Amino acid sequence: MPVPSTTSATNAVKSAMSKLTHATIIPRRSASRGHADHGWLNTYHTFSFADYYDPSHMSFGALRVLNEDRVAPKTGFPTHPHRDAEIFSYILSGELTHRDSMVKKGAEGAQGKDFYRMKRGDVQFTTGGSGIAHSEQNEHESETVHFLQIWATPWGRGLTPQYHTVSFDEELKRKAFLPILSPLAAGINATAAEEKEAKPKIPGTIPIHADLVMGAGIIPVDSRFKWKVGGEGENGESVVENKSDRKVYVHLPMTKNGHAKIRLDGREQAVLHEGDGAYVKGVNVGDEISVESIGEAEAEVISINHRLLETGTMFIFRALRIFKDAIFARNLPLRTRFHLLLLQPITLLTYTIEWAISRKFPHSHEIHIPLKRASGQTVRAVIYIPKSGLTSTKKVPLHLNIHGGAFLGGLPEGSARFCAELADKTGAVVVSTSYRYAPVHTFPDAHEDVQDVAEYLTQNAEKLWNADPRLLTVSGFSVGGNLALAVAQGLAGTEFEVRGSTTFYAVVDFRLPPWLKPKPPGFPEKDPLAFLQPLFDAYAGPNRVRDMENSLLHPTLANINTLPQNMFFVVGGTDILRDETTSMTERLKAEARGINQSRQVSEMSESPDGISIVVRTDIYEGQIHGWLEMPSFAIDINTRTKAFNDAIEFLRKVQQAYGFTV
Question: Domains in the chain and their CATH numbers?
Fold first, then answer.
């Protein structure tokens, strides 16, 4: 049996102060939950479930379902299937009988293997995995059963189905939060033997296939418990994988006829009544969430701390988006569908390479950023936090990176090596974002997406990570460089204008389609990907005449005053984009000389000082488009090391010029 921490229960102070100033706490009021009374079942839904649908409450990280159910006597849920979900029932009162398809059918004993009759204090857990069927019935003659039904998203699909039932001591819950669930000790790569052993990271808890820790406490009136984010192993160590930007959901079940009440983190706006819950965001391992019982009756509280782990399977599903668009997207010409099908195996290969590289340079967490100009849609972004960590006392720079992929796809992790090194060497918080893709989406969709991302960051980066949006820099690879310069144009003249940029083989001029762009010396006579060139033009091509003078799509036309004050361009010597890059930078350098001369500063400085306009171009002879993102065995790694180090040093000097030092 797990034991509560000896330091996690204290007497409540009269006026507790908030300790987690970096965390966001949003109450989920009971009255706003989904509710259905079917006679035999009276149920409340925290998240969208069955006939209740609310797009703003679909899930919360790994947490997918939290239903508070009351089932009448002699009724219940008949046999029904589940798969690819971690499902657990927390019994509050009454009895609930569980049967599932794993056990032998036959004569049922008083408490045998054919069924398990659960009572208060019991938690029944099922791994749906590759498929399982079970029933939950209230077989009592007269008593209603009251329980929480909770589902979490597992870290993998097709797991071996299994179940556990454990009783947890009532009195231990009255001393402090008692751990109920903790991750499977063997982790995401567990062997069949380790799965069978089912050893949890916290002894005495139920093992779950998720980066999740659940605890329960019964807090006496005028007392306070503390829930430690990340849990504690036998030696006091954290038991979760992701250490930062974790999520906690706190729920106060309806057990005391409305007489229980709690307050979270000393915040009056986070006072919860029975049936209420709260989304707690932005907490880190080691943080302690204060939960005070301030009602007229003891408060039974459930706390679930979690993060949704990204898996290789999820990457594959993203890679197969090309195939999905080819088959199901509307209004695409047959020729375009055919080209997408030809592109799919190439995309699957590149996604696999990107995923493999990203495992060596992991991000700390991911977020989904709402799009203002595409209501109801979000884009996925991954966050890189410097190894030195973040503090609440010192603001750090903010950097936005945008991946390449010809506007046809790609992963924000595709730039993992650069983003991770940039965060560690400069101390910046690095956000690498995705956007919507062609051929389904054409200009200006992706440009609007990254502008929405930039605006979201300017409004939220400080409270999320204490990152300073007024010290914003950008980077981008290929079409990501095009988008990065568009972000700078969109923020020009505001208090959040982009201070510096580094672009790697950026597309700066879409006025010519790919097959008409001038080829540099050394470019292959026959381009092996020439048959896909119509797809490479799918974003900018459909309205080329209309957009011919648009500087967002063609940064080479942009006014120098709308671009970052400090710009660093990297391009390969045999890249088809070499000509347009050098044409743009030569024009910018000439204009920068004149402006710097009028300011009486260095005319041609290549080192950011916060005063001069700096335009630097590095051409790597013999290198092709995209070489920096290729596997190490396929390139001269010394050129990649130099390109990344120089770019990072350039951005570090930009940050230093505007007042930040590591």
Answer: 9-307 (2.60.120.10), 365-657 (3.40.50.1820)
On the question of a cis peptide bond just before residue 444, with omega within 30 degrees of 0, the verdict is yes
Q: What are phi and psi of 657, to 5 degrees?
A: -65, -25
List 70's β-bridge partners, or say none. Answer: 42, 146
Amino acid in position 325: D
Spell out where 427-499 has E strands: 429-433, 467-477
The residue among 300, 211, 202 whose CA lies nearest residue 253 is 300
Please provide the DSSP assignment of 33-69 as one string: SEEEE-SSEEEEESS-BTTB--TTSS-BTTEEEEEEE
Tell the residue number behind the tokens 């939220």, with chain if given: 460
Residue with tokens 């408060």: 299
- At 210-241, the pLDDT tens digits run 999 999 999 999 999 999 999 988 888 889 98
Does pTM top 0.85 for this prediction? no
Specify whether the CB–CB gap between 116 and 158 falls below 8 A.
no
Torsional sign, CA 101, 103, 105, 109: negative
How far is the CA of 83 from the CAs of 64, 129, 152, 193, in angstroms?
14, 5, 12, 21
Q: Give alpha helix (H) positions in 511-636.
A: 533-536, 578-598
The token duo for 429 is 């918080």
User: How far apart are alpha carbons 195 and 610 in whole angstroms?
Assistant: 57
Q: How many CB atoms lie within 10 A of CB 212?
A: 28
- Tell me the helices (H) and strands (E) count for the chain, helix number first: 11, 31
Helix (H), strand (E) at residue 291: strand 288-293
Tell me the C-alpha distance between 487 and 476, whole Å: 11
pLDDT tens-digit readout, 104-116: 433 333 444 456 8
3-class state of residue 560 by DSSP = helix
